[in-house]
TrEMBL record:
GO terms for molecular function: ligase activity. ATP binds at K141, E178, F179, D187, R211, S212, N213. Its EC number is 6.3.2.-. The gene is rimK. This is Probable alpha-L-glutamate ligase. It comes from Parerythrobacter lacustris.
Length: 301
């Protein structure tokens, strides 16, 4: 097969591994710098150009769109879908997953466990928000944050109120969440490919941090997840419409609660912790599913 990957940095571990895995299985994988792709909307046949030349002949596209260029990257991916190229994850599904509030609304609608979460636009309602999630303490997070940046633990009413007011003053959208203390600074990342959990790891934050993100100095190890955690991850992936994703959960007193679903999960942490060939499994998922013209929405929605 001829596979394209929308990515900006060819040297990232995840991207290098996907190229390696594709080639090992007899395919070609071309990395296209997302920001150098352009769409040609005027033509009858929707096309994508790269460095000024129309590209075609790809059987599948792997979107690895950075959070800072979500809108542009999704426009390019939609154009691939419209031209009949099978996307590993669809643009519509990625769009949902990039908005934490929207994701949580979808997951809640289907009865999946979530931390108590509140959202409001008006900082005057700060106290109400904090009480709505049985705090303080509360966790306050940016709606479109990533790598743990913009996730704050506020332990008292006054600190929670000032953090909420500061974020709102800076005109950014935030969620206020129940603090799952019993998780003890540890979260679980379950990697779902094609409706199955293929690998899982436990991430523990640096000793002085409640956030377990590897980018914030956390460490990862392999973990055996419970059947309830497994089915939670699989159902979340299904409801979000993602073929490949990382489902992040906390172990709460009332069972697994989902923090978020990542549509471009990093491979380094999970492959190192579990010793599994996750990149190879992603390429296999493409082999099993990619069919020309079978792009589900074909750009709709
Ligand atoms: N409600 C909560 N209770 C306890 N700990 C939490 C809560 N929410 C987040 N955390 C901790 O903070 C970390 C970062 O939170 P979250 O994953 O929501 O942010 P992010 O910036 O989107 O990170 P990512 O890079 O994984 O996308 C989590 O991995 C978890 O360890
Ligand atoms: Mg995130
Ligand atoms: Mg996270």
């Amino acid at each position: 097969m001829k596979i394209a990957m929308l990515a900006r940095n060819a040297n990232l571990y995840s991207h290098r591994r996907l190229v390696e895995a594709a080639e090992a299985r007899g395919h070609t994988l071309d990395i296209l710098n997302t920001t150098r792709c352009t769409v040609n909307i005027a033509s009858h046949r929707p096309t994508v150009s790269y460095n000024g030349e129309t590209i075609n002949g790809f059987d599948a596209v792997i979107p690895r769109i950075g959070a800072s260029i979500t809108q542009y990257g999704l426009a390019i991916l939609r154009q691939f879908e419209m031209s009949g190229v099978w996307p590993l994850n669809e643009s519509v599904a990625i769009g949902r997953s990039r908005d934490k509030l929207r994701s949580m609304q979808i997951l809640a609608k289907h009865g999946l466990g979530l931390p108590l979460t509140a959202y409001a636009n008006d900082p005057k309602q700060a106290e109400e928000l904090i009480k709505a999630v049985n705090g303080p303490p509360v966790v306050i997070k940016l709606l479109e944050g990533t790598q743990g940046i913009g996730v704050v633990l506020a332990e008292t009413m006054s600190s929670a109120k000032s953090v909420i007011e500061a974020f709102r003053g800076a005109n950014v959208n935030i969620l206020v969440q129940e603090f799952i203390k019993e998780a003890g600074g540890t979260d679980i990342r379950a990697l779902v490919i094609g409706g199955k959990v293929v690998a899982a790891m436990k991430r523990t934050g640096a000793p002085d941090d409640f956030r377990s993100n590897l980018h914030r100095g956390g460490s990862a190890e392999v973990i055996k997840i419970t059947p309830e955690e497994r089915s939670t991850a699989v159902r979340a992936a299904k409801r979000m419409g993602l073929n490949v994703c990382g489902v992040d959960m906390l172990r709460s007193n009332h069972g697994p609660v989902i923090m978020e679903v990542n549509s471009s999960p990093g491979l380094e942490g999970i492959e190192t912790a579990t010793g599994k060939d996750v990149a190879g499994m992603i390429i296999k998922c493409i082999e099993d599913n990619a069919r020309s013209g079978k792009t589900k929405t074909k750009g709709a929605g």
